[in-house]
C-alpha cells in the first residue's frame, strides 16, 4: 500500500515561501530547517506534508501538477490567501459554474481553491 507522504514544491526564496505556505495551510515546519529544504506538516496531524525545495527550476504553464485546496468558505479563503500574497489567475476557458478558483503563490506556483460545499 502507498500513501502520499509529502508534496514537494520547488521554490526560489525559501524563507518567503515558508512564511506563505505555513500561514496558507496552517502547517508548521519540522525543525531544523535546512538552508535549501523545509518540510511542513499539518498542525492537526491530518493530511500530507508539503516540502519546500530550494532548487532552480523552469516554470511551466500550464503546470504539470498543482494542489487542489478544499474550502468550506471559498470566498473567505481566496481573500485570506490574497492577503498572504497569492494572486488569482484568470483563465478564459474556466466554466462560469466552476467550483474552483485558480491561484498562484507569491512565486507563481499554481493551486486551486475548491468550493467544498458543492
Calculate Rg over CA atoms: 14 Å
Tally of contiguous helical segments: 2
Mean pLDDT: 95
| Distance between the amino and carboxyl termini | 30 Å
String of helices and strands: EHEEEEHEEE
Helical amount among residues, as a percent range?
A: 10-25%
Structure description:
Helices cover 19% and strands 33% of the residues. With 118 residues, the protein is an alpha/beta fold. A hairpin with a 6-residue loop joins strand 3 (37-42) and strand 4. It is globular, with a radius of gyration of 14 Å. The mean pLDDT is 95.
Outline:
The chain is of the alpha/beta class.
Topology diagram in text:
Blueprint: E1 6-11, H1 14-25, E2 27-29, E3 37-42, E4 49-54, E5 67-71, H2 74-84, E6 87-88, E7 100-104, E8 110-115
Parallel strand pairs: 1-4, 5-8
Antiparallel strand pairs: 2-3, 3-4, 6-7, 7-8
Keywords:
118 residues; four-stranded mixed beta sheet; 2 helices; alpha/beta
